[in-house]
Specification:
mainly alpha; ABC transporter involved in vitamin B12 uptake, BtuC; two-stranded antiparallel sheet; 295 residues; 2% strand
């Protein structure tokens, strides 16, 4: 295969993977804070994309204001989900809480197209279509901007977890009872994690909406995000960065190399293969903490 094409596939894979990683970051945040797997993250990205379109078209806001309004709305929506749904499940088996997030995913996936229609809604961020040319290598401009923004947001979240509020969130994830005993409001920390996860999902929904438009298919990004969060480690925010690059490059190379040989469709199975292999070989991921229970 042509070296230039390999470089283009690798660069595209890194940038796309970082955009996937923005959704995975929300999954890791909630798991790291509350120990729960959030299976509604894909639908939250879709909802954030629809909210931005609604503010820009129906409310007539300029795009920058629509983005801010959508981020704020989804932040409040994430906190509301924790307050109205998740807090009611305290004391219930963990599997029931996970099923609740899956039910929310399915509900939002149906409500979004029901309210806005099934047609793809364009989301124009003003990014030019012309690729960036470096030597003989072509780089998708939307992927480059989206990947850069995603990387910055992931790094900012890592910095947040090293701040005072981040220390409190880490304390909640380690031991909720002990956190209560030293005056940390556990429910508030978990609610903040849900609000932040919803806002990050919205940012991802906006970036992906600018590439492919906004419709129900944005919710399918959940599978890519799960692959990244499991590979990197469900309790490792830094692991999201490396895992996002691995998943993105693997998917891009599979599409460019294997699709011509098998007739297409390999992009859709890469995430599934990564999830299965990680769970079989290293269930706690590359950077996740290994929990050993003695019975």
């Amino acid at each position: 295969m042509d070296f230039i094409l390999l470089c283009e596939l690798a660069i595209s894979g890194v940038l796309v993977g970082l955009m996937y990683g923005l959704i995975a970051l929300g999954i890791v945040l909630i798991y790291k804070t509350s120990g729960l797997a959030n299976l509604a993250q894909g639908a939250l990205a879709m909802a954030g994309g629809y909210a931005t379109v609604a503010f820009a078209t129906l409310a007539g806001l300029p795009m920058w204001a629509a983005i801010i309004a959508a981020l704020a709305l989804m932040w409040l929506g994430g906190m509301l989900i924790e307050r109205v749904m998740l807090r009611r499940m305290i004391g219930q088996p963990v599997i029931m809480v996970i099923m609740l997030t899956l039910g929310l995913e399915i509900f939002l996936r149906g409500v979004g197209p029901g309210l806005f229609g099934s047609a793809v809604k364009p989301l124009d961020l003003g990014i030019r279509q012309a690729p960036i040319i470096i030597g003989d290598i072509l780089i998708n401009r939307a992927y480059l901007i989206g990947g850069a923004i995603s990387a910055l947001l992931i790094i900012a979240t890592i910095a947040l977890f090293n701040s005072q509020i981040g220390v409190r969130m880490r304390a909640v994830s380690d031991d909720q009872t002990a956190s209560w005993s030293v005056g940390i409001r556990v429910e508030r920390m978990i609610a903040i994690a849900w609000g932040l996860a919803a806002a990050l999902a919205t940012a991802a929904g906006i970036l992906w909406g600018s590439v492919q438009g906004v419709d129900w298919s944005l919710s399918l990004l959940l599978m890519k995000a799960l692959a990244i969060s499991i590979l990197g480690g469900l309790d490792s925010i830094a692991g999201v960065l490396l895992a996002a690059v691995v998943v993105g490059v693997a998917e891009s190379l599979a599409t460019g190399i294997l699709d011509p040989l098998v007739g297409g469709g390999t992009r859709d199975i890469v995430a599934s293969v990564i999830i299965l292999m990680t769970l079989l070989v290293r269930p706690y991921g590359l950077f996740g903490r290994e929990h050993i229970e003695r019975v």
